[in-house]
Amino acid sequence: TVDFGISNVLGCDSMFVQFADLTIPGPSHLFWDFGDGGNSIINNPQYIYYNEGYYDVTVFGESDKGCKDTLKRVEYIKFQYPQADFSVSDQGVCPGDNVFFTNLSTGIEINSIWDFGDGTQTSLINPTHQFNFNGSYDINLIVTDSFGCSNTLSLNNHITVQKPTASFITSGLSSNCPPLISDFTNFEEII
User: Fold this and answer.
1) How far apart are alpha carbons 103 and 126 in whole angstroms?
2) For labeling, which of 34, 37, 51, 93 is most exposed (least CB within 10 Å)?
3) Could you state, in chain order, the average pLDDT of each consecutive group of 10 residues for the chain (191 residues)?
4) Burial 75-109 (b: 16+ CB within 10 A, else e)
5) How many whole angstroms separate alpha carbon 191 and alpha carbon 161?
6) Radius of gyration over alpha carbons of the chain, in Å?
C-alpha cells in the first residue's frame, strides 16, 4: 500500500519539503507528482515550492512483484506567506475608552503579537485595549506562521487619545437679581 508523509518543511520565500516514503511493504518504485508541475522518481524526494498555493500531492507506486497503487492527498501542501492586517473600532478616543482590534491577518497557523505603543503588548487574536493618557499611539501587529515566517504591519499615530478640558471666564454679572445675566468667553482647548 502506497503511503507517504513529510519529514521536514522549511522556508519563507519558498518552501523546502522533505517527503518520506512510508509504503508497506517496501521497497517500491515510486513516481511523485507534487501538484505544481514538478515530479520525481526518488523514494524520499526533496522538493521546493516557489509559489504560494495549496497543492495536491500524488504518488504512484509499483512493488517489485508488479502490484500497483496510487495515493492522492488533496491540498496536502499549504504554502501561504503571512500577511499582517487589522482594523480598529475607533481611532479617536478619550482616556480609558475601550478600543476593539480585529485581526484580519492571513497565513497558515499564525500567531499574533500586538504592540499598542504605550508599553503594553498582547498575543490575543482580537484584543480590546484602553489607552489611559492623551497622545498619539503607534500600533504594531506582528504575525508569525507555523514555519517561523513573519510579517509586520506598523501604523504610526493610528490611535489618538484626547481629553477635552473646559475653560472659560465671565466678564461680570449685569444684574444682582435672578435671572443673572453674564457674558462668558470660551478658552476651551483640546489637551
Assistant:
1) 6
2) 37
3) 86 90 82 97 94 94 88 93 96 95 94 97 98 96 92 96 78 70 68 44
4) ebbbbbebebebeeeeeebeeeeebebebebebee
5) 10
6) 31
